Amino acid sequence: MEMLNTLFSNQLLALFAVLGLGLALGNLTWKGVGLGSSGVLFVALLAGHLGFFLPAGVGRFGLALFVYCVGIGAGGRFFQALAREGGSLAKLALFIVGTGALITWVLAQMLDIPAGLSAGIFAGALTSTPALAAATEGGGDIAKEVAIGFGVAYPFGVIGVVLFVQLLPRMLRRGRNEQEQDPVEQSEYERIVTNSLIEVSNPNLYGRRIGEADMAGITCCQISRVLQDGRLRPLNASDIFQAGQILLLVGRPKSLTNACEFIGRKADGNYLLDAENERRRLAVTSAEFAGKTLRELAPLERCGVVITRITRMDQTFVPDGDTRLEKYDILTVVGRPGDLDTFSVKVGHRPQAFEFTDLVSLALGLALGVLFGMIPLGLPGGASMTLGVAGGPLFVGLLLGRIGKVGRLVGHIPRPSRLLLQELGLILFLADAGIAGGADLAKTVAEYGPVVFLMGAAVTLLPMLLAYPFSRRFFRTTRMQTLGGICGGMTSTPALGALTAGCDTQEPVVSYATAYPVALIMMTVFAKLLLESLL
After folding, report:
1. Read out DSSP for 39-58?
2. What pLDDT shows up at residue 46?
3. How many angstroms separate the CA atoms of 202 and 215, rounded?
4. Nearest-5° angle of CA 389, CA 392, CA 397?
5. Residues 284 and 293: beta-carbon distance below 8 Å
6. Whole-angstrom Cα distance, residue 167 to residue 89?
């Protein structure tokens, strides 16, 4: 132990040791569920309890970097979700977060739980690291309590949402959607999007235009190519269904099986296709496209291309006519090279155009965010507050992510770079917060006992139990839309994975992607309000 104390008296060594061990802990999974980056917090709590320290200022730097990247990534979708008619899912996210904050406030008053500990339980129960960041802004003893509360509530927050979306349909004695039976455990393969050759043999389809058949809406698959002269060529607007015709469909494995039964039978054989020149990945940046449905845009009829996949918020799904494009969606598009060139200009930029990270914009944007966070904002009654390091960079990042460019400032960071910077900032912040809270961890848990754990469980479960019937009745969302929206409102990607593992519908993914950015931002707001109201 003395040797370890000597080694870790070097604060830089202690920092990297906490980060490495924490990430290793986070990579451990049980049935697909793990701590992820939050593993750093638990290792840091232990290190703080043992008396280790980290370099000064590393947590505030990580916090600013983390929330700024969150804002840049969520900016376009956050404002769109609030503005368009899909706002019912944004309202669902707001309901979940607001209910969670209210339940936390009531239980804190009833059980006499300190403000910092309560705010941390709120953030952990809803698995929100931005909320943790916002609540620890003030530093000092409050920040220590927040970190402890987060560590207490987070494990149940992760597991509780996963169990909820899996068990609720069974408790209601109904399937996961109107067509599906009770969910069963499936392999990772069932979650991917793939393709399959199908031969047309359904007489009811003969003579109908393929592009007008809405196959995506019927089968959750897209028809991208047609066999002609021994070669799979991109679909044209004039193509019609014919007996014995070979089609290439894109979708999830179970959806492809259902589509095969509807269209005809599975076809065998190897056919030529020019994937390099007839398929591209394009990023939506055009105002003409963002916010419109594929039915309104009619890409096959107007541009001669088929959008076979959309990647949004790290989730890939097969779109249908009612799918609404959002800014920075990544589209997989199939068509002839000339048509793809035309469509590329209309939709915006290809992802390759986003590979350059403008470090000048990154530095100036962070500086502007920190400066904005220092500006006093007036409150009713003559009081004032500042957004601080947690709120200022977040707000500036949201605006830049929405606007795209302001003079020299570019409001875009390539996704790989943004995720790396966001993850780096997060783990630096978690390490610092955990070290600060670890010193008082045992004392706090011993003082309040199992009450804090039960409070965390209540703050996780009650908002979901209230949100489900509320959304179904007042927002008229389907069962799968509601469950996907709950995953987004609880910012739980593991729960979304569990939900989509046993079904083919794309509704949960789209609902998650709509609700998630709203919940992400609103949790930071409610965390600060909750803390202020309890102090």
Report:
1. HHHHHHHHHHHTT----TTH
2. 84
3. 13
4. 115
5. no
6. 22
Residue 303 CA to residue 343 CA, distance in Å, equals: 6
Is 38 within a domain?
A: no
> Which is nearest to 182 in space by CA: 515, 466, 468, 503?
503
Q: What amino acid is encoded at 399 in this protein?
A: L
Phi and psi dihedrals of 438, rounded to 5?
-65, -30
Q: What predicted TM-score, i.e. pTM, was given to this entire model?
A: 0.61
Answer whether residue 16 is part of any domain: no
What is the span of the domain harbouring residue 475?
55-173+389-534
The pLDDT tens digits for 453-496 are: 899 999 999 999 999 999 998 888 888 889 988 988 898 766 77
Tell me 188's DSSP state.
Answer: G
Per-residue pLDDT tens digits for 329-372? 889 999 999 999 899 888 876 555 556 677 888 899 999 988 98
Residue 193 lies in a domain: no
Q: How far apart are CA 439 and CA 436, in angstroms?
A: 7
Strand pairing report for 194-200 and 222-228: unpaired
Any residues with CB less than 8 A from the CB of 153 and at least 6 apart, and which?
A: 120, 121, 122, 123, 124, 125, 452, 453, 455, 456, 459, 460
Q: What total number of domains does the chain contain? A: 1
Q: What is the pLDDT of residue 455?
A: 94
* Distance separating alpha carbons of residues 91 and 473, to the nearest angstrom: 13
